Amino acid sequence: AVQTSSTRRTPLLARRIMGSFSDESVFTSPAHDLEAFENYADHITPQQVHAEFRKIWAAYETPQIYLSTSEIIENPRDTILEAFRDSQAVEVESGEEADPGEFAYTDFGPAGEVVERATIADIGIETVRFGNNVRLNIKKTPYQKNIINLSVAFGQGELALPRDNPGLRWFAPSIMTSGGLKAHSADDIQTLMAGKSVGAGFSMGTRRFYLGGSTTPEHLPDQLNLMAALISAPGFRAESVARYGKLIESLYPTLDSTPAGVAQRDADRIVRSGDPRFGIPDEEALLGVSMETLVEWITPGLQNSAMEIAVVGDVDVGTVIAEVARTFGAFPSRSINVPVYSSGVTRLTFPEGSKQPVILSHTGEPDTALLLVYWPGPDGRSDVTASELDVLQSVFENRLNDVLREELGSTYSPGAFNFASRDYPDFGYFGVSVEVNPDDIDQVQARIFDLATEIQTGTVTQDEFDRAITPIRENIEESLENNGYWMNVIGEAQTDPERLDRHRRRTTLYRNMKLDDVIRRGESLFENSKSITLYILPEE
């Protein structure tokens, strides 16, 4: 915290200062906190810590127990208290302290040779390709002192998911993250890396699978050892399947306890005409994926696919190249070509428009419903189109806020959103969501359609345009000092240079955008006869 304190973001500082004020405490600097700790550290004993814990737990005979569940419990007070009393009767045994040894993955073979290296001066990045075709993109930034972010793109993403096994989307990242290594369990890894800023997790993108993490310059070698090991020697351990199963069994029944949970489960699939790769499948599908299926699906990507690594932050470029050469650069030769997908997997279809809403139900509060309205829209292959949609989204949201609060006198907080992807040609949508009282849902839906018609007829004003685009222009400048933004730009700079070009055009594009551009976009978008509506209502 002391090392990174000089580059803390203003919003974070503001939240912490306000938090201290509301807690009636004094906001202090990391340097002050460290000094205070060091003044006492040498005098603190394990016995003192144990004594303090005993004081804290002294009232366990009369506890305050809070339970959140979607299940209906008969006589909940006595049932919960009985379960607590039963747990007190179970004798607690000390766990065995197993010695995990030393981290087994520090030597990956001879370091890779750099066969290509270039500087992209206007963006400030170094690009490298090693002899095994592993690519590396590096950007040194001053925005977070002592912090380094890393990403590894490899394999295939959601486009390669089998439609007959939709649970794989959720199973794969979970097992890969918690499955440990051949030589170490996930718990062993935590023990071995204790005291170090090291960690990594898997995620699935549209076209690629990703391994991401963050570290410090001091622990960069350990971070790369771990990430390289997770790619080259994944554990696929049985305990990760058990952990995943318990997670699904505890979380899935809660999805229908709120309208938002139902939307998360079903809306993305409905708006894509039932494509099973989207939304959250049923519990049986989530739990029905086997480890054998995962291994068969992901192993070619782990072993042979094109790989691109990005490193952003407080780095020494030479050190990064050397450490990646030592780890990923030492892998066997890999494909140089990224996956190319057929039109059969990139084709999505918006449902046929309907005046009748799709009715879904939730088991939560009886006075809460969720209204979702979608219009079919363009894809995002043009950044001009994508940027106009972003401004139109803000215009619609601002106007809808004004209508609901001023005309209807409600405190509803509507949101507008759009999906315009480069990966799904000729598919996109513009949407609106409002959490409402069920009694108001028809009236709010009608007013949303009225607004869409008004915008389609060219009624957006210069003031509305300015209110919408000014924050976007300001955020563009702020994003240039954000490592997360730069990771998105350079993450696949060598295999997807369009990301660099979009970055170059972004400021000029928004600066030159005019009111007429947004009016034309609204005129082409809002055809209510082509829209679909979802009502997520309380269960009767």
Molecular structure report:
The chain is 43% helix and 15% strand. The chain folds into three domains: 84 residues, no CATH class; 230 residues, Metalloenzyme, LuxS/M16 peptidase-like (Cytochrome Bc1 Complex, Chain A, domain 1, 2-Layer Sandwich), CATH 3.30.830.10; 189 residues, Cytochrome Bc1 Complex, Chain A, domain 1 (2-Layer Sandwich). By secondary structure, it is of the alpha+beta class. It has a seven-stranded mixed β-sheet, sandwiched between helices.
What name is given to the CATH topology of the largest domain?
Cytochrome Bc1 Complex, Chain A, domain 1
Give me the side-by-side strand order of the main sheet: 1-2-3-7-4-6-5
Total of DSSP H or I helical runs spanning 4+ residues = 19
* Strand coverage percent: 5-15%
Number of strands: 12
Largest sheet: 7 strands, mixed
Low-confidence segments, given as residue ranges, are none
> What CATH first level of the largest domain would be assigned?
Alpha Beta
Portion in helices: 40-55%
- Count of discrete structural domains: 3
Radius of gyration: 27 Å
Name of the CATH homologous superfamily of the largest domain: Metalloenzyme, LuxS/M16 peptidase-like
The span between the termini is: 52 Å
Q: What is the averaged pLDDT score?
A: 94
What would you call the shape? globular
- Structural class from helices and strands? alpha+beta
What is the second-level CATH architecture of the largest domain? 2-Layer Sandwich
